[in-house]
Amino acid sequence: KNTVNLMKELLSTPSYDSFHEANAAYFINFNHYFQQLLKQKKLKKSHVIDQSMINPKYAYQIFSGKRTLTRDKAIMLAFGAGLDLEETQVFLKYASHLPLYPKVKRDALIIVALNQRMTVMDANDYLYQYKEALLEWSASSLSAEIQPISCVRG
Predict the structure, then answer these.
(1) Dist. CA 112–CA 95, nearest whole Å
(2) Fewer Cβ within 10 Å of end Cβ, the chain: N or C?
(3) What pTM was computed for the model?
């Protein structure tokens, strides 16, 4: 069923429970969609997570439902999977987030970064150049040779 038909049915149903029971197969399931995407693109989840710069433990907590997938983390996974703009927009929909919107400066910069096939780090550099908030990431997701060094005074 398409979205218009589902909406008509939802508005005419006496209860959500009956609607849900009749239409459960049409509900968005991010994990199922992500698994299909990995299969279609012949990608490994670990590779996408590594390329996304998301801490692996955090990422697996997202997939297990222990953590919420933020919009930034969804965008980072899209970069990690090498998605183009159209694929990213669908990905964001399945992740229950708003699509990238070209009238919002930060989103426009992310759109350009996706279009130019930048990495997450390159996209963050690009956002930084324009004084926009960086995509969320943690230093623990960086490889050992490029992790920031902390100085301790004695």
Answers:
(1) 21
(2) C
(3) 0.81
